[in-house]
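Project standup — Tuesday

K.O.: blocked on the structure for the chain from last sprint. Re-posting the sequence here as requested.
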Amino acid sequence: MTERLCDGCGAVLQSDDKSKAGYVPESALNNEHIICRRCFRLKHYNEVQDVNYSDDDFLEMIHQISNTKSLVVNIVDIFDFNGSFISGIKRLTGNNPVLLVANKVDLLPKSTNRNRLVHWMKKMAAEQGVKVVDVFLISAAKGIGFDEVEEAMEKYRQGKDIYVVGCTNVGKSTFINQLIQRTSGTNDAITTSYFPGTTLGFIEIPLDDRTSLFDTPGIVNRHQLVHYVSEKDLKLITPKKELKPKVFQLNDQQTLFFGGFCRFDFQKGMKQSIICYFSNQLMIHRTKLEKADDFFQEHVGELLQPPNRETLEKLPELITHTFKIPHEKTDIVIPGLGWFTIAEGGISIAVHAPKGIQISLRPALI
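H.V.: unblocked you, prediction finished:
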């Protein structure tokens, strides 16, 4: 019998085991268009069913691209560039040309210099050993920037297949749904959600009689906060509207709490402007460094929220990272949550974040 794939997530359809990916009732296998029970419940009830795939299984699937001659479109989340950029993409995709597409540009403040941002992205990719053929800024949800991206995809694919890759939760499926909607008028052809790991296999969308565009499983980056939070908290920390930066004037020996997820201690240095780029729904609190430990223990999950109690049960303990910030405008990035900018530098700081979350510094994005 010919193997059939779920139209929503790409999993191989089967009717033998309800606990495994691709399950549908046997009576549904004769339908022309089929989505598995997992996609049906995700689409209609926002309910996620665990599947028996490991992170390595997804990487192995992506690695198949290295054996093809194709164009790779790498989607990143511009709000979480460090957390969503695939550092090993060249190893996974071989010598195929890479088009870097930054999604969710509509969330950045309107004052953002887009030309500078594109140059910055090329530089960051080059530092990871990846030479991209071009860079584009888009909003998959709003259709911003798609005329330019479609033109570039046609130019660089040179009559070959296209593989769309990216980490979980960057908007790959939304990107492809937008492409399909623009060409065929079909809405929500591929399953999308807030949750990481929605796509479970390659989903093939024909481009012409000989070539196709493939949606691929999201690569899991365990250094991102999104893998440790509840459904409710994930919606709160995922930006939906243009970011409104919050500015704090801090002296040394002061602390900022970003909800109850992360803490920034200004240990030593001259007075600084701290510019915070997080979801507008994340509460930020300032207190004295000497009171910070007691304040956290007393208020986490209540005044310091999110996280809620469900997230706190699985959130790793906070680990301290210390840095000396150079005399230049610097971002401190918390993957999956956002970043804050130290305007002048020349100070000593500490950042307390859940164990396993990879805190990084970079030249200021904005």
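K.O.: great, moving the ticket to review. Residues 53-221 form a domain with the Rossmann fold fold (CATH 3.40.50.300). Residues 254 and 288 are 5 Å apart (CA to CA).
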